[in-house]
Automatic annotation (TrEMBL):
Pfam families: DJC28_CD. This is DnaJ homologue subfamily C member 28 conserved domain-containing protein. The lineage of its organism: Eukaryota, Fungi, Dikarya, Ascomycota, Saccharomycotina. Residues 194-266 form the DnaJ homologue subfamily C member 28 conserved domain. PANTHER family: DNAJ HOMOLOGUE SUBFAMILY C MEMBER 28 CONSERVED DOMAIN-CONTAINING PROTEIN (PTHR39394:SF1), YALI0E31793P (PTHR39394). It comes from the Eukaryota. It comes from Australozyma saopauloensis.
Amino acid sequence: MLRLVRCNSTKSALAERFQQILDEKLHLASRSAISKDEHLSLQLDCLEQFNTERSQSQLEGAAFEQKYQREIAFVNSEKRFNLQNERNDALQRPWNGSELVLETSRRMLDDSVAKAKRVERKPSRTIISPPVPLSERIQNAKELSLDYKVGKAMTPEEKEREQFKEMYKERLLGPSVFSNSASSSSTMGLITSMADARINAEIDQKTGTFSSQEMLSVRGKPLDKDRLKNSTDTAYFMNELLKKQDCLPTWIENQQGVDVEVNAFRANLKSQAVSSLHKLAKSGDGTQSVAEMKLALSVYTQDKLESKLLLMILKTKKDYFQSKIADINTKIRHYNLSAPSSSLHKWKLIEENEYQTAISKVVLNIDEALELANSQHTKVKEKQVSSSFLGLLGEKGPSINTSYSGIERPKEPLQFWQLVKDIFKS
């Protein structure tokens, strides 16, 4: 197809399209039709002028190369004389027998020694850094030796941050980061193989379609976009598979576990606060009534009573509660990483806030707390008394008098398999 050069060239797409239509019309039209159309005649004249100028320039270029072919060849061969010695040898005049003895001897000595071959090395991309000054090297060595002497190591926060990076990578990118997920030996590869086997079992080998009746209602029809607004296709269908298999998503199982852990921890903390309150209020054998214990606690103000209970809890259970809170916060972090939305995230536990909340609830409901502590104390005493009598009778359990220890009869072997053999023999 002919393509004409526009006299007034423009870069717009619309003009390019018009020019293409014009070229097609000019190519398909006859000579007489072109002569009748003024615009087509103008375009044809531009084309002929362009072809004439191009032919003329080609002829001039060929004539120039023919005329100066010797000089062009010399210029093209100039790259062979890049080295200074080769260029000098090529430009030296040949011997004619009238040279001086000194020049003749020099040229003979030069020719008798083989010239070293030039090895072209690739340019190196390495950045050569200047050497470190001696004073700076000494200072760096002093700092390293001082750190080693002091035993400077990573702080617990830095260690936790490094562990969090590794866990974050594994949780978000999946176990395929550390193992080959396509391998049948890995868990992911085994699940994929089982899924492929289930899919192939449902396919009709004759028709190539699924033999399930449910596919007749959805085959060839578009997906329901309303249920896919807030999730991708993959996430939606994975959730559907989990629902059909009666499996809960991982983040829901983690959520249930976290809730159980938090509730158990707070119940334990409240029980410890109640026990501390009972120890602070009781006197003697601890058989006082609730009114008497409340009267004994009336000397404390609310703030002073809360601070007193806090000191008692920290004195006995501080290390345990700190480690328990750290463990729960780790589980909360795992859950937050697996939760599909930030609106489902949970706040981590703060040690001071948990102490303050539990103690405040106990102090505000002091009557209920004292009744609970008194009933627990009574149950413990009754259990100790009953266990002491059981010890006297020889039963298993703690005993007050160690001289009356129970004698346990040695267990005789049942010989079950011997009985089975005897049955079959008879």
